[in-house]
């Protein structure tokens, strides 16, 4: 399984017991969707490795307590600490309306209510306080905050995102 065919579910953050159990912090608003997994991929030394799950339960709302098959000691568990958890993309719950996964809107055309055709969404920068659409407008990079008030429509069929950026924001990037 390749990383680009998967989504990031979370990370193993600490050991839970002396029997190889681990706690994983999930990167989701709906951890209960992942209570019945049989297997999961762990990122180990740059590769995704499948691990089969012996036991799984939610722990304190956003943590998942996991007991993997053949991980029976504290030393086994130590070797998995800080590993990323991944699942195949087809296990992602479908989102509708203006909700979307970052990976699914890349390549969409961004259209502003006032400006018109802004360009193609080439990336999403989520390393800032507020996530930003990174749009290619004829070779110029335009950043628009991903704010619910600005995103008016996500059209998956036509691969477009209609936004209402603050007045003058797009023009700032295009002034010489």
Short description:
The chain has 176 residues and is mainly beta.
Average pLDDT: 92
Q: Helix fraction? A: under 10%
CATH topology of the largest domain: Elongation Factor Tu (Ef-tu), domain 3
CATH top level of the largest domain is Mainly Beta
The class by helix and strand makeup works out as mainly beta
Beta-strand content bin: over 45%
CATH architecture identity of the largest domain: Beta Barrel
Which ranges are low-confidence, i.e. pLDDT below 50, for 5 or more consecutive residues?
none
User: Superfamily at the CATH H level of the largest domain?
Assistant: RimM
Strands of the biggest beta sheet: in what spatial order?
1-2-5-4-3-6
**Number of strand segments:** 12
Q: What is the overall silhouette? A: elongated
Tell me the number of helical segments per DSSP (H or I, 4 or more residues long).
3
- Give the ordered list of helices and strands: EEEEEHEHEEEEEEH
How can the largest sheet be summarized?
6 strands, antiparallel, barrel
Total tally of structural domains: 2
**What is the rounded Rg?**
20 Å
How would you explain this protein's 3D organization?
With about 180 residues, the protein is mainly β. It has 2 domains: about 5-90, Elongation Factor Tu (Ef-tu), domain 3 (Beta Barrel), CATH 2.40.30; about 100-175, PRC-barrel domain (SH3 type barrels, Roll), CATH 2.30.30. The chain has helices at about 75-80, 100-105, 170-175, and strands at about 5-15, 20-25, 40-45, 45-60, 65-70, 85-90, 110, 115-125, 130-135, 140-145, 150-155, 160-165.
